[in-house]
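G., before I forget:
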Amino acid sequence: MVESLTCSICGKLATVHLTQIVDNQMHKLDLCDTCAQKQGLLNSNGFSLSQFVSKAFPNQKTQPAKVKVSICPVCTFTATNLKKEGKLGCDACYTELKSEIQPILTKLCSKRTHVGKQPKRLIETKTLQDSIETLEAQIKSAIEQEDYEAAGTLYAQKQLLMQSASKSNPS
Amino acid sequence: MNAYLQPILDAAADTSDCKISKPIVLSTRIRLARNLAQHRFPNWADEAQRQTVFKLCQKAFQKLPQFKKSPLLTIDTLNENQKQILFERHLVSKELCDAKPGSGFIIDKKQSCFIMVNEEDHLRIQIMQNGFRLDRIWSQINTIDDQLEAELEYAFSSEIGYLTACPTNVGTGMRASVMLHLPGLVLSEYMEATVRAANQLGLAVRGLFGEGSEATGTMFQISNQQTLGDSESTILKRLEEILNTIIEHEKHARQKLLQERPDKILDKIARAYGILQNMRCLTSAEAIDLLSLMRLATDIGIFDDSIRGLIDRLILHVQPGHIQLFLTSENLTKSQCDTFRAKMLREAFLKIGPLDFERM
């Protein structure tokens, strides 16, 4: 916010610019020396800018500072819901609300990575991808060595694997 | 629905097999939490969204050989007594009993595997068996999980594993627990120290009915707390090692009590037996406490080994839901239940016969 050059009370040149943050709400006020002294604003003990603003300008509504709440775009589950229920809304929440979930997982267990059983489909997909990556490296090497016949054979193998990969994972 | 469910409810006798009912370890259970990708978790879903997940799961179950002829039952078609019975058998949770429409469960033809749908997560797959059987149950549940995964797309992150409604279950989504009978540690006043040690080693210790329940009948559920960061086999191996230590401590505690203060423990058993033969009115909590002492009596040889299975069955039968099932009547007063319970136990212990301290 830009500081105003004129006093909020009398319109003269403002020399006192006050900012107060209470409960995430920011209040700003620009006053001249005289108005500031009259209001006792230069005495910082026990002074509440927000109370002063609401008394002096009763019609002025202070806008609450907007607090950002994490929300899962897939199921609209929020971090507030998580705090309240202790459970999540869907599998996508684990990605979308990752920063809120990490401390919970850390508290439960020092180990944060899954070790153990995996769905077979995932293993098959991973194996295929590893094979495709290996073939890509071999193709590149064959081209560098100008062995274009080998590169062609490897390329054909790679195409077959990519067809299998797209069949098992149509998405 | 009743035609399918009634035999399951009537099969109270099958929950404790006399042949495999052993000292100290009562039962083992493994539960996996799984969710479908791109569907809201049950607590955040509306009814239509829950029904969509329900139908997807229903379709998937039909493809599994173990569940082919089993219907996916909705929880709201069960009456309160039926829910209570399944809860007492540790087959459904309190959360499922209170769940919103679109929730349900399915039981396989062997009555070993139970899957809850739209409880806290989309799927809660559970296998429970008598005895100490972590590896065997893991092998069975892993197979069912693989079969379901082939039909449904699971919510999974390569970084933090299987994604669950509550972050406490993320990772393996696995909760393995064993129910132990620990009267030796309780009577020797070592149970508190045992619980503290177990907690420090990453295990949770709960009462007979899980979270928030009391330690009725000196029976405790011990389970892994953490689900993220270790593989399933590491978690199970660690749990087994610690449980074996606790079991050894329980055996030593019993031996020590019998060597140093035999009259203390035998007196407790004798008094419990006297009450069971004569009382006219009994609450389920007191019944379980007394039966716990009778189980200990069997373990130390006062009763024949074959009695243990019957005692385990009685521990189930004295609970409120089961009492109501036997009485086949609704709106029973607490007093009527307590009287019936007392009669049932008096008759059972008349058949079992007297205590034989010479057998020890």
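Residues 67 and 108 of chain B are 5 Å apart (CA to CA). The interface with chain A takes residues 35, 37-41, 43-44, 120, 142, 145-146, 149-150, 153-163, 165-168, 170-172, 226, 228-234 of chain B (CB under 8 Å).

More on Monday.
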